[in-house]
Amino acid sequence: MKTEPDVYGFDDLLAAPKQTDMWDGIRNYQARNFMRDQMQVGDKVLFYHSNTKPPGVVGIAEIVSEAYTDPTQFDPNEKYFDPKSSPDKPRWIVVDVKAIKKFDHYVSLQEIKDEPKLSSMRLVQKGNRLSIMPVEKSEFEFIVKLGNS
DNA sequence: GCCAACGTTGGC
DNA sequence: GCCAACGTTGGC
User: Fold this and answer.
1) Which one of A24, A69, A84, A138 is most buried, by most CB atoms within 10 A?
2) In angstroms, what CA-CA distances link A124 with A13, A57, A81, A145?
3) Is any atom of nucleic acid chain B found less than 7 Å from the CB of residue A109?
4) Which helix (H) or strand (E) segment is A98 a member of?
5) pTM here?
6) Could you list the pLDDT tens digit for every one of the 149 residues in chain A?
7) Residues 45-104 of A with CB under 7 A from strand B
8) What sign does the dihedral A98-A56-A8-A86 (CA atoms) show?
9) How many angstroms separate the CA atoms of A5 and A10, rounded?
């Protein structure tokens, strides 16, 4: 899961009550579908910082809720307000995410790109802009290993 | 349904 | 700040 640390970073999640927060603001259908269809409670997540120098994986989080309606889509004062969504037919969902561990070693995007074993990750493929995407178990474990080294 | 124009993401 | 690579919008 990608986030801009200036907006909401791993430290913000660590500082949240129970190190848990709502992952709101997803406004891309593909990303939403991954969240809705692929995520399960207990799944581990690579927490990625984008639009920062350097971008990279900062730690691990965990999915702690089923998908539910994103409340920010109905609030006109919200940045994520969607006038085309309605409470009886909501478009957007959230999951709750809990911070598990900040890596000892920040795994930069460059390190990921430099590692042949990680070359098939969606993250490093051309044109990818999704803020939520699936990760293979082997890729996940490899990055965790880098992060703990 | 097509597609041009426009908006967004995000690395560099 | 630039720009590639999308995704979305809306006229037709």
Assistant:
1) A24
2) 25, 13, 30, 18
3) yes
4) strand A96-108
5) 0.94
6) 999 999 999 999 999 999 999 999 999 999 999 999 999 999 999 999 999 999 999 999 999 999 999 999 998 888 888 988 888 889 999 999 999 999 999 999 999 999 999 999 999 998 888 999 999 999 999 999 999 98
7) 50-52, 54-55
8) negative
9) 7
